[in-house]
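Whiteboard transcription, Tuesday session. T.W. wrote the structure tokens on the left side:
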């Protein structure tokens, strides 16, 4: 009974919580905070229960439910979880719970915790649902659901240019979604099975239903939808604006989970359903990924705003994820999924710290802060140093494994890519990607020098700069522990993902 209800209850619990918060009287706004905290805590407990009940040795979907939904178009309520989606699913609940803790004392102007927390829980349902949907129509609905809460979180609780950033985020993502939906409909009609079910479409793909020009056009449509969400170069321009203007919790969830929806879509849908087209487009994806790595690092070197620097770093980190996916080998896909988890943990933590620094200094400008953070707030400065070093890929911390295995995968790409004559290209891209890691170390170390080092400027000596509060410790400690744990024991992720990565790549002949 639990197996049949586990995913449904866990996914829609935050939606129920959002509805309860919406009923809280306006005169009792602060009552929304404990409600959001308990709902997100219960959601995390349920996701951990699913994790505990997962059969680690098995391949394929578990906790699966597959019942008719919209029979007129063949859409089904088909959900399930495997080693590819499980880590991302649990991470989404962990980050939402930590954001609920952080929001007890940190909700940006104009306040209004009732609306903010209801949107956060609605966002949680959309994020988690995307990772368990096994029907393209259901996947698309969850995919689009995240647009509305994030739009309002940026547009109402964001920075000075929040309206521009919110509209840009919405239009970019919606633009890509239109092409993705057209591609989904094309797959539905071409398969001739009268179903949006992913497993039915996998079988149609293995029978050659999506080969040739049709498959390439369908892949291009799906590519646009997912590449904008990742975001890949040159579709990335919405990301720095959205991150810079979003409230701290919005930035954490945007970086930690929303960006992974695009990379997850490539692994779950694009590669196994359109394997021939994936081989054709893989060199282009790899080239764009490495351009993103180099470009993101160079942009970070030019930034004067702490939050915008972290935002551009995401372009580079997601470039490593896409390079692993483009290699189309078990090593590459495993590296990509590990990179998604590591980026969610590390960059989510960076946005938490930058948000708290901005709260103290009332600025994110590196020159205005002027250095001396280790003197004024030694614990805050130490945490910023630790997480920045993790983000630049120091061995022994979580950021290392995804990047190094993505580069290894580029050195030995899929046999189909080698047969097509792309081996030299991928090895050149591997070298350029390695240069990107050096640039990443450069901009993070330079940022730490300008923010942490030196003495406290005179203009800040009369200000009360409070170090890390108990609420912040509660919200941050799980992420700090994970950064170390994943760095020392990468098998915590690789052991879960590898069986299903091998399984899904069998559709591509790898």
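and on the right, the sequence the group agreed on:
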């Amino acid at each position: 009974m639990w197996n049949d209800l586990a995913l449904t209850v866990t996914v829609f619990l935050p939606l129920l919580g959002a509805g309860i918060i919406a009923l809280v009287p306006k005169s009792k706004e602060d009552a929304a905070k404990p409600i959001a905290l308990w709902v997100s805590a219960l959601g995390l407990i349920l996701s951990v229960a699913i994790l505990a009940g997962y059969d680690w040795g098995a391949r394929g979907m578990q906790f699966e439910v597959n019942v008719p939904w919209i029979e007129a178009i063949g859409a089904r309520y088909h959900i399930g979880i495997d080693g590819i989606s499980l880590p991302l699913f649990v991470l989404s609940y962990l980050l939402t719970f930590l954001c609920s803790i952080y929001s007890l004392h940190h909700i940006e102007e104009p306040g209004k915790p009732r609306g903010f927390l209801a949107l956060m829980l609605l966002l949680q349902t959309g994020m988690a649902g995307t990772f368990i949907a096994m029907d393209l129509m259901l996947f698309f609905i969850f995919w689009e659901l995240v647009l509305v809460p994030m739009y309002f979180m940026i547009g109402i609780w964001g920075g000075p240019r929040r309206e521009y950033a919110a509209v840009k985020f919405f239009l970019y993502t919606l633009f890509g979604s239109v092409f993705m939906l057209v591609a989904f409909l094309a797959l539905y009609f071409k398969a001739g099975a009268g179903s949006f079910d992913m497993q039915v479409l996998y079988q149609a793909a293995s029978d050659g239903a999506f080969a040739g020009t049709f498959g390439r056009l369908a892949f291009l449509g799906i590519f646009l939808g997912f590449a904008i969400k990742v975001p890949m170069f040159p579709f990335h321009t919405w990301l720095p604006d959205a991150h810079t203007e979003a409230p701290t919790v919005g930035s954490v969830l945007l970086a930690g989970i929303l960006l992974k929806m695009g990379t997850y879509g490539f692994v779950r849908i694009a590669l196994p359903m359109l394997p021939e087209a994936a081989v054709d487009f893989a060199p282009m994806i790899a080239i764009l990924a490495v351009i993103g790595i180099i470009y993101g690092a160079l942009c970070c070197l030019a930034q004067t705003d702490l939050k915008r620097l972290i935002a551009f770093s995401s372009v580079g980190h997601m470039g490593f994820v896409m390079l692993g996916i483009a290699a189309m080998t078990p090593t590459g896909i495993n590296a990509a999924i590990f990179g998604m988890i590591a980026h969610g943990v590390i960059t989510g933590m960076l946005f938490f710290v930058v948000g708290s620094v901005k709260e103290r200094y009332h600025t994110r400008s590196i020159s205005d802060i002027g250095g001396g953070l280790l003197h004024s707030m030694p614990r805050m400065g130490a945490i910023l140093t630790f997480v920045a070093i993790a983000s630049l890929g120091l061995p022994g911390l979580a950021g290392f494994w995804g990047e190094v295995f993505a580069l290894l995968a580029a050195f030995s790409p899929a046999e189909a890519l080698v047969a097509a004559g792309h081996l030299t290209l991928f090895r050149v891209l591997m070298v350029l990607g390695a240069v990107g890691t050096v640039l990443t170390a450069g901009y993070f170390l330079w940022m730490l020098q300008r923010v942490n080092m030196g003495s406290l400027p005179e203009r800040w000596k009369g200000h009360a700069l409070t170090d890390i509060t108990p609420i912040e410790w509660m919200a941050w400690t799980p992420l700090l522990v994970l950064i170390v744990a994943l760095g020392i024991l990468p098998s915590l992720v690789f052991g879960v993902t590898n069986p299903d990565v091998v399984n899904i790549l069998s559709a591509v002949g790898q």
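Someone added at the bottom: The mean pLDDT is 89.
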